[in-house]
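batch_manifest entry 22 of 60
target: Phytocyanin domain-containing protein
source organism: Coccomyxa subellipsoidea
requested by: lab member K.T.
priority: normal
notes from requester: please return tokens only, no post-processing; we will run our own comparison against the previous entry in this batch. if the run fails, retry once and flag.
--- input ---
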Amino acid sequence: MKTWCVTAVLLLCVGISVGRQLQQGSTPSSGGNTATAQATATATASVGGGQIYAIDPWSLGKSYAPLTVAASSRIRFNWNSRHGVYRIPSGSCPSSFSPGNGIIALAPASNGGSFTTPPLSPGVYWYACPVPTHCPSGMIFKVTVV
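--- output ---
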């Protein structure tokens, strides 16, 4: 009877811990199974008629939902490991991140950093991480400015 009770309490504690990790957006370790957390941009400040939206963290393991913002808004990307920010011409990851043909290096890859766009004009913008395999692994982000 004691063994059964101890086992039940341990399973309950593990379940609560995993539930809290999922609510906080982190991925619990599960022996090789991984999940992608949905990331959202958060408005952090108002500047010159537009908001600043933070992508924090800009990292692997997240899925970035498209964002619609007002003209003059800015996007701030923050990262803690090897990432960068390039503007790309469409929602397709380029085979190479060499500037040209609509690819613009905004923040070259670095080990930690931050980049804030200038105020955005109406249009559609695509941003991606230039580190190999990062864009096709989910580090691509669409912003529509109205």
